[in-house]
Design a protein that fits this description.
Elements (H helix, E strand, L loop, with lengths): L2 E5 L5 H12 L3 E4 L11 H14 L17 E9 L2 E2 L1 H12 L5 E8 L6 H8 L9 E4 L7 H7 L1
Parallel strand pairs: 1-2, 1-3, 3-5, 5-6
Antiparallel strand pairs: 3-4
Bound molecules: flavin mononucleotide (FMN).
Flavin mononucleotide (FMN) binds next to helix 1, helix 2, strand 3 and strand 5.
Length: 154
């Protein structure tokens, strides 16, 4: 089974989780980036920009080139929780996957600061008819205990 770990990380927590996942499986890894200036370096300003993107339906552009998603059987999609939901670059990625030549199952992994209850429902909704597997939710940059992560990978 060919697997891709693809993630967006604004402040590094999801990136750290993606790299821990990579150590536990043999998967390609890709970091999603958005054009410079898309967000702010300030969390609150970034939150406002993201809300504006959602209101207008103008999700952020993702830097190219992106992987050839059609090659994969499973795509692990990582990102931070923003206002209880997937960060807008993750939503932009799901739009591409949904309309691309993708047959892979999706598995969300995400990091948050304490509240992430609606994340997976919103992720599934954004994924349309693609199959979404149960996700992995980690607070902050995680702990040194990898039990939960290992259980999810297996
Ligand atoms: N954490 C939560 O638990 N709930 C939230 O609703 C939430 N909204 C956020 C909105 C923005 C714009 C940002 C920047 C952070 C928010 N956070 C929230 C915190 C992040 O989800 C958390 O710090 C996450 O681990 C950051 O991942 P990253 O370092 O990969 O960007």
């Amino acid at each position: 089974m060919k697997q891709l770990i693809i993630y967006y990380s604004w402040s590094g927590n999801t990136a750290a989780l993606a790299h821990r996942l990579q150590q536990l499986m043999s998967a390609d890894v890709f970091e999603i980036k958005v054009p410079a200036g898309t967000f702010s370096t300030d969390m609150y300003a970034t939150s406002d920009i993201a809300k504006q993107q959602l209101t207008t339906g103008q999700l952020p552009a993702l830097n190219e080139p992106l992987p050839n998603f059609g090659e994969y059987d499973e795509i692990l999609v990582g990102g931070p929780v923003w206002s209880g939901s997937p960060a807008t670059p993750v939503l932009a990625l799901l739009e591409l996957l949904k309309h691309g030549n993708v047959s892979a199952q999706l598995a969300p992994f995400y990091t948050h600061a304490g509240s992430a209850v609606g994340y997976e429902a919103d992720f599934e909704k954004a994924a349309g008819s693609l199959t979404v597997l149960p996700g992995l939710s980690i607070a902050g940059s995680g702990t040194n205990d990898d039990t939960e992560i290992q259980k999810w990978v297996n």
